[in-house]
Structures are given as structure tokens and as C-alpha cells.
Specification:
Layout lengths: L1 H8 L16 H12 L10 H14 L5 E5 L5 H8 L3 E6 L2 H10 L4 E4 L11 E6 L9 H14 E12 L10 E7 L10 E9 L4 E10 L2 E10 L3 H8 L4 E7 L13 E8 L3
Parallel strand pairs: 1-2, 1-4, 2-3, 4-5
Antiparallel strand pairs: 5-11, 6-7, 7-8, 8-9, 10-11
């Protein structure tokens, strides 16, 4: 038992993945949808007033009637607002529960149940968006794969907008572990379970939230990575994939860039190779 628990609690290797389902787990996805739709929290989607301002700002970057692809669209909170503004919008997500909700509440947008790391579009969209710091949750090979797919999906000169966390987010934070007993179930499982939590850091720009769920006869592991970027490191990462950064902002409402901000929003343009 000691060896088993020690293995579960050892600090993982950099960018080590886990196999347990997360976004599509029948129980967890229900809790995630509730968080997306809760107007009082920024836990999954941001609050409605922020989303309203974000949709207005994104609209200012688009040509009238332009085509937009929102990858990782969740329950369609941004896509619906943009479709209502007259844009031709496609929302893509691999959470079945979120896509079902989006389709039932928005008849104008085309919703696709798909992993954006497997999407195949060619010169179709004027703009692609990836909102709420999803990019930094990807390991490097997946980030580079995504950049290539977004590049192919955009029309010549098309825009890709994404936001990421900056090193300010983890400034002063330290590694720590904790545990809790959930006799009546919880976010991670409907069954009684013990939840082991750990926060690890790999330098100032890479963090890992690791969660281990122990039930009777079952153990699940979830590694959620968080890579932070500066203006320089993000520019260096996207340039080899054919993108030139147009400008940086503090967030997805177009707020002027502040070096003390916990987030950066980058708007980049597809260039000709």
C-alpha cells in the first residue's frame, strides 16, 4: 500500500499526461456545465458582463458577416452572442454535454462535437478564438499541433485570438498538498471517495494541478498543466507556425496590456509562408 500511494503522490515528470477522462466524464461534465452557466463565478466561463464585453470586442476585429470558429466553445456563451450580431459562427468542443446544451439554446450557430486537436478545415474562417486560457493547459506537442491546424483553418490574413496566463499568476506561490474525504461524493465522483490534491511548479512558468481520486476498487488520476507565457515567449512560440502577433491586451475584452496582469490576450495574423 505504501508503494502504491507513494507512486500516486510522487511529483510527475514535466508534461506527463494522465489517461482518466475529464471533460467527457459523465459526472464531471455535469459539474463543469453548472460552473459554465453560473453567473456568479469565473471558474469555467467568465461572468456574463465580461462575456458581453468580450463579444463586443471580438466583433470589432471581424469583417461584417465574417466567419468565426470558436474552439473549446463549451456551452456556447460566446458563440451565441456573436451569431446574434450577424456573424457566421461555428462552435467546436469535445464535451458532449456542453455541445448538447449549446445546440438546444442557439439555432444560429453550427456546433460540432470534436476535439480541436483533430479538426480539419482549410482556408475557411476569418477568425479563430480560443478563450479562457485553454492554450496553456496543453502540453507542447499539442500546442504546436493546434497552431498548425488553426493556421490551415484560417483564410489568408485571418486572425487567431487566444489568452494565456502570465507568470504573475503563480508569483509567490509554493508547492503544496492536501487531502479530503467526500463520503457523499463530490465534483470528481458521485461515489464516496478520498481526494488527494497537489500543486507543483516546474520553474516560474509551468504549474501542475494534480488530483488523485481513490474509491473502493478504483483510482483515477488527473494532471492539469498550466504553462504561463510572456509577450516574448508567446511570440517566439507562434512565429514558426506562420503567425505574426498584431497586438497584446490584458484580457479578452481588449483591455490595454498591463505587465502586472495575470493574463495576456494575443491577436495574431496568419501570414504567407
Amino acid at each position: 500500500m505504501y508503494s502504491t500511494l507513494k507512486t500516486l503522490l510522487d511529483k510527475p515528470k514535466l508534461y506527463e499526461k494522465t489517461c482518466s477522462k475529464f471533460w467527457n466524464d459523465p459526472h464531471i461534465s455535469g459539474g463543469m456545465l453548472e460552473a459554465h452557466l453560473d453567473p456568479n463565478t469565473d471558474a469555467a466561463s467568465r461572468k456574463p458582463e465580461f462575456i458581453d464585453r468580450s463579444a463586443e470586442w471580438i466583433s470589432s476585429l471581424m469583417p461584417p458577416g465574417g466567419k468565426l470558429l470558436d474552439i473549446g466553445c463549451g456551452p456556447g456563451l460566446y458563440t451565441k452572442r456573436l451569431s446574434d450580431r450577424g456573424f457566421i459562427v461555428t462552435g467546436l468542443d469535445f464535451s458532449e454535454r456542453s455541445i448538447e446544451y449549446a445546440k438546444s439554446h442557439d439555432q444560429k450557430t453550427e456546433y460540432l462535437l470534436m476535439d480541436y486537436l483533430e479538426m480539419e478545415f482549410d482556408n475557411k474562417f476569418d477568425m479563430v478564438t480560443l478563450i479562457w486560457c485553454d492554450y496553456g493547459a496543453l502540453v507542447p506537442e499539442d500546442r504546436h499541433n493546434l497552431l498548425d491546424r488553426v493556421y490551415r483553418a484560417l483564410k489568408p490574413g485571418g486572425l487567431f485570438a487566444l489568452d494565456v496566463f502570465t507568470p504573475q499568476k503563480s508569483k509567490g506561490c509554493k508547492e503544496h498538498t492536501s487531502w479530503e474525504i467526500n463520503e457523499n461524493g463530490g465534483f470528481w465522483s458521485p461515489n464516496p471517495h478520498i481526494c488527494l490534491n497537489a500543486q507543483y511548479y516546474y520553474g516560474e512558468c509551468i504549474g501542475l494541478t494534480r488530483t488523485v481520486i481513490i474509491e473502493d476498487g478504483n483510482v483515477k488520476e488527473y494532471n492539469i498543466w498550466d504553462t504561463c507565457f510572456t509577450k516574448v515567449t508567446l511570440t517566439e512560440e507562434v512565429r514558426p507556425h506562420g503567425f505574426a502577433v498584431v497586438d497584446f491586451y490584458s484580457d479578452f475584452t481588449g483591455k490595454p496590456y498591463d505587465e502586472k496582469s495575470n493574463t495576456i490576450c494575443a491577436v495574431m495574423r496568419k501570414t504567407l509562408n
